[in-house]
């Protein structure tokens, strides 16, 4: 009996396979809208070009032209895809023209900032939950910190840090930290306070110390909350890293690609960088989600 | 010392000259709520001697849980005095002198059954080998051997409650406080656990304070039954069960002595109810 009972029943998360068709439908719809948008937005320029050559274009050549401009207002999906292919697969990843190279630069400061932000968020939450006075004195500042627009302080932080000879990855990581510690703090405070009264009473009957109650009840109880807020935090970290690359004229990173793209009107390059950034964000959130599921199953809480 | 109501004085003496483990004197507890004060306990006098098995019985809301929580130092009385093992409930709690079984199982979902039972032992700093022995022994006692590595959600409600009993027993306390521990179990399992509990009690000389809604359960288990009534929560009768032998089997429930005691408890509960209307 115990042998058959020993294996934890693995129940598949519902809807994973079932979600594929609707997701595909949405993607196809979005691509269709994108093509239509490219046609509408690029049409005036294309019409001008035809007019200069005194040609009366038919609809087909008009469409073909709007979807293959060198500097379109809105590049068509296949142009972006081609640019992505060219700058990832067809470039050595050490090349300055490789998106993988730029993506890695941004990713590394994202990860450093995210790690520091998560640690900071957890520490702040532990402090706020355990020291009564901090709740009133610290929490308002934590909330206020997020009301300052990041675009306003990112350049200042980067410039100030550059002035004291801190350059490269660290200033960007600071911005990532700044954006990611907040969701983690809020989620963790909620998580550390999540144990039921009954579970706390139980600890009291054992005369557990505050430290034991923390390790054996509050911390494990907060794990699901931690991962939920880390998903928000990791996406915010990426945004922070990209934003930190914009104002300083950084030469590498996805932010730099966006910036140089806009200097030279390389809209295809801009859009390729944007798509790369969102794919990166999706990948990061997915990875955090996978670790979440793994940890929760390891802890035996998965149903 | 005892200034309780007319009949109280004689009844409360039934601790039988034994050393008192719990000494409650004119205890009251009033909850301040948004809808005004709730008199959960009023003027309780009770003395429980070492080795006694005392049941608290009464209608829902009469303060049974509250009384147990006061003994366990989970609730502070607003009047009167209480001593546990001769000291304050707080000192008794800090000396880890009781095991508490809650109305709900209160297992931690991220711990296996074995690790849930081991939880108080980890907190008390019991060495690993000793911990494992106590976990195995007490899980066997509540018929949960073989379920060590299951998680709480993989067990039925009744099994979870048995695991929580094993957890309280693992502390090996001299005093057991049990709040309707078998309330959620089916009749057969309940009978079995009643017998087990009685055997354990007879063997180990523990003092047990046991909350129940069931008259047969109370009579079967107890040396004394405290009948309570609500609004305000107070003690209306204390029924002595020494007419029954200390060693009991389930057959005792057919004897005239048993039925007589059950009848008296029922009368006490009725009286409490009519007072209310
Ligand atoms: N924390 C609280 N705050 C306010 N009122 C409370 C609180 N706990 C209990 N009460 C009230 O005190 C009274 C006694 O409650 P208690 O839980 O002790 O009853 P009980 O006898 O255990 O009932 P049951 O048999 O349903 O478990 C009830 O009227 C209840 O509403
Ligand atoms: Mg109760």
UniProtKB/TrEMBL annotation, chain A:
Transmembrane segments: 20-41, 104-129, 141-163, 225-248, 268-291
Gene3D superfamilies membership: MetI-like
A GO BP entry: transmembrane transport
Top-level lineage group: Bacteria
Database matches in Pfam families: BPD_transp_1
Bilayer topology: Multi-pass membrane protein
Keyword vocabulary terms for this entry: Cell membrane, Membrane, Transmembrane, Transmembrane helix, Transport
Family: Belongs to the binding-protein-dependent transport system permease family.
Annotated protein name in UniProt: NitT/TauT family transport system permease protein
TrEMBL record, chain B:
Domain (ABC transporter) ranges: 22-255
Gene3D superfamilies, per database record: P-loop containing nucleotide triphosphate hydrolases
SMART domains: AAA (SM00382)
Transmembrane feature ranges: none
Keyword check for Nuclease: no
Keywords for this protein: ATP-binding, Nucleotide-binding, Transport
Pfam families reported in the protein's UniProt record: ABC_tran
A single MF term (Gene Ontology): ATP binding
Family in the record: Belongs to the ABC transporter superfamily.
Entry protein name: NitT/TauT family transport system ATP-binding protein
Higher taxonomy: Bacteria, Pseudomonadati, Pseudomonadota, Alphaproteobacteria, Hyphomicrobiales
């Amino acid at each position: 009996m115990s042998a058959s009972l020993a294996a934890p029943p693995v129940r598949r998360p519902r809807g994973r396979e079932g979600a594929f068709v609707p997701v595909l439908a949405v993607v196809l719809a979005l691509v269709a809208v994108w093509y239509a948008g490219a046609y509408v937005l690029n049409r005036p320029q294309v019409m001008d070009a035809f007019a200069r050559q005194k040609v009366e274009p038919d609809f087909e050549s008009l469409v073909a032209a709007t979807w293959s401009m060198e500097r379109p207002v809105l590049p068509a999906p296949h142009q972006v895809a081609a640019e992505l292919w060219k700058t990832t697969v067809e470039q050595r990843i050490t090349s300055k023209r490789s998106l993988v190279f730029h993506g890695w630069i941004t990713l590394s400061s994202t990860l450093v900032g995210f790690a520091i932000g998560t640690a900071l968020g957890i520490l702040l939450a532990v402090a706020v939950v355990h020291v009564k006075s901090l709740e009133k004195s610290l929490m308002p500042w934590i909330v206020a910190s997020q009301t300052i627009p990041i675009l306003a302080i990112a350049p200042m932080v980067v410039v100030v840090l550059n002035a004291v000879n801190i350059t490269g990855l660290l200033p960007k990581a600071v911005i990532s930290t700044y954006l990611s510690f907040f969701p983690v703090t809020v989620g963790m405070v909620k998580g550390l306070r999540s144990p039921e009264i009954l579970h706390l009473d139980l600890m009291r009957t054992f005369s557990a110390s505050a430290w034991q109650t923390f390790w054996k009840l509050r911390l494990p109880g907060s794990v699901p909350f931690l991962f939920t807020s880390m998903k928000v935090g990791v996406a915010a970290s990426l945004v922070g890293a990209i934003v930190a690359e914009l104002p300083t004229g950084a030469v590498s990173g996805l932010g730099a690609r966006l910036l140089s793209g806009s200097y030279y009107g390389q809209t295809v390059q801009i859009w390729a960088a944007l798509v790369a950034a969102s794919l990166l964000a999706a990948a990061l959130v997915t990875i955090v989600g996978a670790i979440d599921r793994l940890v929760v199953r390891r802890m035996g809480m998965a149903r | 010392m005892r200034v309780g109501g007319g009949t109280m004085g004689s009844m409360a003496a039934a601790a039988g000259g034994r050393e008192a483990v719990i000494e409650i004197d004119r205890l009251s507890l009033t909850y301040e709520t948004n809808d005004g004060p709730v008199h959960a306990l009023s003027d309780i006098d009770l003395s429980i001697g070492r080795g006694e098995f005392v049941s608290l019985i009464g209608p829902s809301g009469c303060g049974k849980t509250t009384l147990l929580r006061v003994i366990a130092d989970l609730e502070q009385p607003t009047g009167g005095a209480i001593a546990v093992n001769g000291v304050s409930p707080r000192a008794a709690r800090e000396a880890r002198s009781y095991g508490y079984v809650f109305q709900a199982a209160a297992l931690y979902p991220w711990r296996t059954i074995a690790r849930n039972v081991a939880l108080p032992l980890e907190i008390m700093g019991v060495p690993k080998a000793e911990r494992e022995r106590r976990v195995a022994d007490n899980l066997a006692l509540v018929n949960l051997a073989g379920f060590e590595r299951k998680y709480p959600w993989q067990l039925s409600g009744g099994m979870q409650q048995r695991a929580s009993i094993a957890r309280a027993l693992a502390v090996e306390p001299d005093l057991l406080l049990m709040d309707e521990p078998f309330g959620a179990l089916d009749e057969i399992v309940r009978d079995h656990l009643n017998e087990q509990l009685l055997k354990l009690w007879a063997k180990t000389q523990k003092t047990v304070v046991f909350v129940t809604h069931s008259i047969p359960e109370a009579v079967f288990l107890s040396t004394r039954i405290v009948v309570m009534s609500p609004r305000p929560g107070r003690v209306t009768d204390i029924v002595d069960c020494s007419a029954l032998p200390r060693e009991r089997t389930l057959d005792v429930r057919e004897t005239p002595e048993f039925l007589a005691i059950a009848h008296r408890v029922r009368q006490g509960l009725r009286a409490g109810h009519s007072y209310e209307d």
